[in-house]
Each structure stands twice: as C-alpha cells, then as structure tokens.
Design the sequence.
C-alpha cells in the first residue's frame, strides 16, 4: 500500500471522526436546550407580555426580541406570514431581550406604548425606521422619537410611564426569564414551549408546521 493511499485513508477517517463528534455535540446541545426549556416552561410568558392572535389558537410562538436587532427586524414579516397562512391557529407573544447596548430605553418605550394599546404599531414603526436609529447594531435611543409620530401615542404619558419603576420591573423580569431559558441571542423562538433545534427561518417554519399538525 503506497503512502499516498494510506494518507487518503487517514484523512477520510479523521473527517469521519470529526463529523461524528460534531453530530454528537449538536445532539447533546439540542437535548440540553430542550431540557432547559421544559424545566422553565412556566416562565415562557408573563401577564405583561404583548400577544397577537386568537386566544384559542393552539400553536403559540414566544419570541424574545430586541428592537435594535437587525435579524429580529428581518424575521418580523416572516412570523406574520406564518400567522396569515394559518388564520386563527397561531398566536405570538413577545418577550423583551434588550441585549444591545442602549436598546433598553427603546424596550421601555415599547412597554409604555403597550399601556396605550399601541405596542404593535410602535414596534412596526421602530422596525421600519431601524436603519436610521440602530444602524449596524448601534442603537441611538434618542433618535427613535423622530419615527413614532403618527401612531397616536400620548408622548407626555409615554415618557412618564417609561420612568415608572413598574416598567423597569417588566424589563428586569423578561431578562431574568431569558437567562432562565438560556436565551443568549435574538430573535429566539419557542413554539408550544419547544426551542428551535437550530436557528433559521426554515427551522422555525418546520417547528410551527409540526405543532400545527399535532394540534389540528
């Protein structure tokens, strides 16, 4: 057996060992993620969490998001498309995960807007204008005021509510729940309590399809 042939076999074996180790690692990681989610299922949603969709919907997506997160902005229309494709069967709850420096103030603005029944309108306005106030993951909270006119918010009340300790408590609670659920990046999705096996729109779509098939 010549050296070239032996070398080829050795490389193939090494690639096989690496691939197997990666699969085992990913499988263990996924199992651990499932275990953590199941153990902390009770903190997935709080009473203060904004929710969209029919209360009777049997498929519940919980999304941890940061308004300054560009990927959260990209996923927002996809989630709405999933809901539109299955009318009345999917609802969505949002949890706050202000992981970007400076985005906590914007999250407080959203929480205060919810008190005026304007959460979703405000979120959409912030996402639409995100390239202006949070370009390249660099939030500038003072700029967001330029992009929420026309929603019908009472700005004076909004600012007063943002300073209310109750709003700060909501943000602290969501961050504590994110830690309990091992949420380290945004967006992070749970569908009927199940985390995505890996990140991506197709993975979210598949997880939602599995739950729709099992629930209806």
Sequence:
């Amino acid at each position: 057996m010549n050296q070239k042939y032996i070398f080829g076999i050795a490389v193939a074996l090494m690639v096989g060992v690496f691939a197997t180790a990666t699969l085992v690692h990913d499988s263990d990681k996924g199992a651990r993620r499932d275990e953590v989610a199941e153990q902390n299922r009770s903190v997935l949603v709080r009473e203060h969490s904004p929710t969209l969709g029919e209360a009777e919907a049997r498929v519940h997506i919980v999304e941890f998001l940061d308004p300054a997160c560009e990927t959260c902005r990209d996923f927002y229309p996809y989630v709405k498309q999933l809901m539109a494709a299955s009318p009345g069967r999917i609802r969505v709850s949002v949890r706050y995960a202000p992981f970007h420096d400076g985005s906590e103030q914007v999250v407080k603005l959203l929480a205060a807007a919810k008190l005026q029944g304007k959460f979703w309108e405000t979120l959409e306005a912030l996402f639409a204008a995100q390239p202006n106030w949070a370009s390249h993951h660099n939030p500038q909270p003072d700029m967001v005021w330029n992009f929420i006119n026309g929603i019908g918010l009472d700005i004076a009340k909004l600012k007063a509510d943002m300073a209310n300790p109750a709003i700060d408590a909501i943000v602290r609670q969501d961050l504590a729940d994110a830690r309990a659920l091992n949420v380290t990046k945004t967006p992070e999705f749970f569908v009927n309590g199940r985390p995505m096996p890996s990140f991506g729109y197709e993975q979210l779509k598949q997880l939602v399809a599995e739950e729709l098939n099992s629930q209806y």
In short: The helical segments are 3-39, 70-85, 104-115, 119-128, 130-133, 155-162, 165-180, 201-215. Residues 191 and 210 are 10 Å apart (CA to CA).
